[in-house]
Specification:
mainly alpha; 0% strand
Length: 101
């Protein structure tokens, strides 16, 4: 799974790493684990680090989703107060994985 490098500062996690840096590290860990050349202890440490990165990436994505929801809500309000078609009276989590626009 390849991701292009982001321009600008990117969204940062609590430890100062960008989402893109965390994803790159996660990809490296997956490659190492799939290679099968690690000891059991190295595999466990890599898996633990990977799970921590997944948690951090999920948090960053949730924050980004909230920002997008706020921006689209503000755009809806400035466009006459009417919600976009199909969005009236919906909670943000009504459809898992659906973009808020």
């Amino acid at each position: 799974m390849k991701r292009s490098a982001a321009t600008g500062s990117g969204v940062r996690a609590g430890d100062g790493k960008s989402f893109e840096e965390m994803m790159k590290r996660l990809e490296e860990l997956v490659e190492k684990l799939e290679g099968g050349n690690l000891t059991l202890e190295e595999s466990i440490r890599s898996f633990e680090e990977g799970m921590s990165l997944v948690k951090e990436c999920s948090s960053v994505l949730q924050e980004a989703d909230l920002r997008i929801q706020k921006l689209t809500a503000a755009a809806d309000n400035t466009a006459g107060g009417a919600a976009a078609p199909g969005r009236a009276n919906r909670e943000p989590d009504d459809v898992e994985g659906e973009l808020p626009f």
